[in-house]
Write a structure and sequence with these properties.
Layout: E1 3-4, H1 36-43, E2 52-53, E3 56-57, E4 59-60, H2 71-83, H3 94-113, E5 121-124, H4 127-142, E6 160-164, H5 173-182, E7 185-189, H6 199-203, E8 210-216, H7 228-237, E9 241-245, H8 257-260, E10 264-268, E11 279-283, H9 285-290, E12 301-304, E13 309-311, H10 325-341, H11 343-362, E14 367-370, E15 381-386, H12 391-400, E16 403-404, E17 406-408, H13 413-418, E18 424-428, H14 435-451
Parallel strand pairs: 4-16, 6-7, 6-8, 8-9, 9-10
Antiparallel strand pairs: 1-2, 2-3, 5-11, 10-11, 12-13, 14-15, 15-18, 17-18
Helix pairs in contact: 2-10, 3-10, 4-5, 11-14
Amino acid sequence: MVLVTGRRASGRRRGRNERQSVSQLAVGVTTAPLTDSEVEEIRRDFPALQGTVNGEALAYLDSGATAQRPLSVLDAERDFLEHRNAAVHRGAHTLAGLATEAYEDARATVASFVGAQPDEIVWTSNATDSLNLVAYGMVNASRGRGGATARRFALTEGDEIVVTEAEHHANLIPWQELAALTGATLRYIPVDDDGIYQATDAAAVITDKTRVVAIAHVSNVTGFVAPVAEIVALAHQAGAVVVLDACQSAPHRRLDLPALGVDFAAFSGHKMLGPTGIGVLYGRTELLEALPPFRTGGSMISTVTMEGADYLPAPQRFEAGTQPVSQAVAIAEAVRYLEHVGLDRIEAHEEALAERMLAGLATIPGIRVVGPGAGIPRAGLVSFDVAGVHAHDVGQYLDSKGIAVRVGHHCAQPLHRRLGLTATTRASAYLYTTTAEVDRFLEAVGEVRGYFGEV
């Protein structure tokens, strides 16, 4: 593969006062999809999208895995590192104070983004880390750590943990481990032949034995949007804690986590125009205060003796060690970028592109799309199988045309096994995806079977 990075038109990195051409977009209460001209304006903020791959203009349709970053996010992190870089919540000098202020301001920005309070937001290394934090906190509670307040999280034999058959491995394996370490039973909500499920399916699995319900808000394979409100009601009626994997929803649609009623939620910076190395855990205040930490060390303690330690209140009690400070600054800038464009408009834009992909794929012989059909709400991603051609070969052919997609089981092997597939090809859109890129993608997919001699 030959990758050529596009050169910025100005030949230099834009300053903070001129970095956002998106600032020229009209901002209002409209929920209409972004127009082609608005998307083109947005794209000018993303250096990676100006490049070519294998001699073709890059069509980046893999934002479901990792989103590209706008200049404003890149500039925000660099500006912090150049002018305010220091350890937070430790030093008494001016630079440490500025770094701490930036770090906590970022927490407040992200909290507001999801309708939460700052003390309900824990910085982690990624969403996987966030989910493990909750699961292993429950392991510690089950071992008696955390005292009386933590007993609400203690599991034992006879208790049940409920997930779905469609979960990403990051929202499955931690709960498998929790079950194995506590003697609890892991159960799952089955999906149908399209890879989706209904609230009635959940009602048949959630019982008075259920202690934890962990689900994805949006499937990273099918784009299915879960009936979260109904599942929260079922889980809370049973006295269970609800953990939401919001990795495919937080970057793409407006979220109010307290209004959804979930107890914990996790998402990652790198899927929402931010950097790698930072994730977010949302938790209701009283639950974070009761959950024992599982990662311990510096920065999360109030008093330490040779016999034991007392921990700081949440969220600091979960942030042991050196914190991801510049990454927090960058994810906050990504939030500001998304809010300026408008989450409602981004969601409408992506749904329109998904419908375009579905309609186009339906006209190509030998294509099987998984997930909700046309007319049923789905996120802006589409996964499909090409008859007679392995997904990896499909991806390589598309890459030769400059089109980046995801191939494989997408960290969801049980779901693919249920669908009778080993792997699929996934195209995922974002605010910077154009209709022209979708059309290029459809044209290339239409050539795949002929190229490999399957027609």
